């Protein structure tokens, strides 16, 4: 069976009379409408009521002159919230020029000034958390509580970035009498950040504070599917005192990405998204001499041992498999049951079935819609492929009852598929609310399954045995491990540490790695002879460092 290839949202030209599609005649839900109006009223860079998303260049929110625009739909109702420009070549050039100019002064501001910016930013992010979360629910579809979590995990990066006065400390040693060598971590220059749709606040916040606090300037390209949170964050950066040009936001799809990869003024690219784009950006960026970090797709396994705390394990797996409708790169998408599956499956199915599928603003909603009708088609096709591959669909989310208020939503319910590693739905990242259940006879077999998988973002084990947990963490080859913890993404004092096919590039996001990614070492060796202070004889001997 062949699945449809990943498609870009339809670009519309302004001359196209059908710009307002039939979808745009659909209305937002009653809970969403006032929030959408509030966002359009409060923020310069975005709209949630059918207006447009602006470029942010040199400290100004400017309407693009583009002839090509991309509609952003509410995934619960298909209402058009905003249209995003395919930023033009000359606008892109202006953004890079603004960032290059700003670098000259921003890179020379004191580290305390840059630290003060992140202090102020974290405060403003908290103060404006509701608007950011509302924008995420509207454009991305996740539930309100989950949208706040999206922001919080980014905000924690800003908070950790405030430690820059310690993390930038360099090494120094007297290598010879009166001769010192010391290292300074200096900024790279203009950097770029390309974000995916699934964490519209968190991912821009993985890069903005880290790039700025280390003295770089940044071109951000949010996902063209949900740029609203990034635009609010950009305005908050300005309010937090970030000078014009230090952060610029441009929009669009492949043309903007390629312009980023090719522009000689851009020194480094941070990418988070799918495998195809990640590989393309890594290859093209590094061929052009840039530093590139690329976080990509995943297939995260959780091993269920017979001795596990059943209640904790089942609730953890359900949350991690179906939360955010499975659209998380650290979602648990595979449960590997060691031993007797009948101990686990009935409760797993029963609790998954109890999750409420609904619009993200609705009280009690557990699972919102997928990002687009295309994503829904792709996920349901992958579920359908399971039976052809010999799998058994134990819980079928394709038949989920569509919430009455949201007949046009891209909803798929929790799905549980039992089968083997040959299934297409095991081999591909589903990125939907679908959990594949495999069975293994022993812990070793379960670990082997994980190690044979091409991805390596994360893995978890549920057990009451320290020895079993120890064996798991020693033997398993994945980068972020959880022991009785389902989504083991470390807090940002640590760096992102996904491995194997889930990453390209050697330097991880945030933490100490983030500082290293956004700086280069400059060493100076200086000689200030103490005896010269009183004007003594010159030495003609070869320096030997003794
Ligand atoms: P995506 O690859 O479609 O898009 C990501 C970005 O790349 C967007 O800004 C998009 O405009 C651009 N892009 C898309 N296709 C491109 C192409 N062919 N050439 C150049 N640029 C292109 O990803 P998505 O659907 O927005 O996000 C979901 C994916 O992101 C999943 O695979 C998920 O696992 C991954 N993800 C990974 C992490 C991580 O840290 N490992 C975190 C979040 C999401």
From TrEMBL:
GO biological process: L-valine catabolic process; thymine catabolic process
EC number of the protein: 1.2.1.27
Gene3D superfamilies, alphabetized: Aldehyde Dehydrogenase, Chain A, domain 1, Aldehyde Dehydrogenase, Chain A, domain 2
Pfam families named in the record: Aldedh (PF00171)
Domain Aldehyde dehydrogenase: 61-523
Origin superkingdom: Eukaryota
Family: Belongs to the aldehyde dehydrogenase family.
Protein name: methylmalonate-semialdehyde dehydrogenase (CoA acylating)
Source organism: Crepidotus variabilis
């Amino acid at each position: 069976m062949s699945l449809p290839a990943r498609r870009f949202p339809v670009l519309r030209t302004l001359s196209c009379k059908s710009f307002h599609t039939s979808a745009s005649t659909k209305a937002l839900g009653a809970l969403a409408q006032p929030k959408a109006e509030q966002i359009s009223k409060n923020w310069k860079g975005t709209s949630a009521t059918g207006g447009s998303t602006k470029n942010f260049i040199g400290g100004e929110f400017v309407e693009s002159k583009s002839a090509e625009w991309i509609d952003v739909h509410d995934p619960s109702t298909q209402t058009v919230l905003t249209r995003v420009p395919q930023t033009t070549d000359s606008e892109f050039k202006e953004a890079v020029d603004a960032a290059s100019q700003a670098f000259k002064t921003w890179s020379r501001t004191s580290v305390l000034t840059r630290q003060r910016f992140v202090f102020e930013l974290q405060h403003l992010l908290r103060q404006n958390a509701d608007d950011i979360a509302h924008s995420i629910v509207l454009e991305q579809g996740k539930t309100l509580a989950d949208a706040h979590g999206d922001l919080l995990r980014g905000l924690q990066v800003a908070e950790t970035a405030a430690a820059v006065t310690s993390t930038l400390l360099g090494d120094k040693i007297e290598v010879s009498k009166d001769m010192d060598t010391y290292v300074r971590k200096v900024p790279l220059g203009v950097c770029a950040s390309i974000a995916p749709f699934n964490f519209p606040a968190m991912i821009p916040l993985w890069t903005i504070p880290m790039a700025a606090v280390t003295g770089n300037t940044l071109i951000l390209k949010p996902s063209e599917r949900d740029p609203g949170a990034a635009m609010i964050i950009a305005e908050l950066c300005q309010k937090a005192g970030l000078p014009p040009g230090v952060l610029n936001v441009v929009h669009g799809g492949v043309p903007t990405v390629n312009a980023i990869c090719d522009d000689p003024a851009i020194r480094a690219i941070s990418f988070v998204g799918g495998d195809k784009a990640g590989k393309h950006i890594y290859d093209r960026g590094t061929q052009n001499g840039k530093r590139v970090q690329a976080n990509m797709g995943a297939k995260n396994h959780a091993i269920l041992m017979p001795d596990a705390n059943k209640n904790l394990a089942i609730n953890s797996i359900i949350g991690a498999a179906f939360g955010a409708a499975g659209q998380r790169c650290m979602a648990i998408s595979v449960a590997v049951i060691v031993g007797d599956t009948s101990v686990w499956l009935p409760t797993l199915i029963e609790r998954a079935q109890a999750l409420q599928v609904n619009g993200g603003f609705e009280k009690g909603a557990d699972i919102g819609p997928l990002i687009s009708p295309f994503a829904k088609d792709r996920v349901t096709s992958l579920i359908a492929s399971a039976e052809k591959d010999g799998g058994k669909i134990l819980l079928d989310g394709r038949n989920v009852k569509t919430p009455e208020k949201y007949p046009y939503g891209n909803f798929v319910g929790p799905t549980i598929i039992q089968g083997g590693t040959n299934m297409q739905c095991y081999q591909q990242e589903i990125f939907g609310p679908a959990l594949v259940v495999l069975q293994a006879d022993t812990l070793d077999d379960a670990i082997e399954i994980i190690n044979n998988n091409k991805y390596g973002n994360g893995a978890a084990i549920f057990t009451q045995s320290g020895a079993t947990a120890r064996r798991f963490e020693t033997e398993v080859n994945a980068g972020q491990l959880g022991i009785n913890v389902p989504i083991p993404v470390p807090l940002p004092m640590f760096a992102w540490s996904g491995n194997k096919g889930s990453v390209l590039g050697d330097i991880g996001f945030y933490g100490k790695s983030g500082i290293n990614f956004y700086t280069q070492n400059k060493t100076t060796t200086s000689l200030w002879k103490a005896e010269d202070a009183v004007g003594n004889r010159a030495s003609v001997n070869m320096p030997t460092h003794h």
